[in-house]
Amino acid sequence: MTKHTQQAEVDQNYEAFKGMLSELIESDSGRFALLHNRELVACFDTNRDAVQAGRKILEGKPFSVQKVTRKPVDLGYFSHARILGAI
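RESULT FIELD:
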């Protein structure tokens, strides 16, 4: 997967995340949402747990992780997108 395609996945997931944020705030505030293909996979207590689950569940497919919070949080590129083997 190219960096351009990877960034497109991250951008699309983020747009989808913003649309589900109000609902997620009610159920998962402070947790970390794992997203793939513009869909929520699951929420986890830590960023690390979300990344590990993404690697295991999605087997190398691109995914992103977002903290469920009302404040925009930019955790950096690799906090948003993970590809198997990338850190």
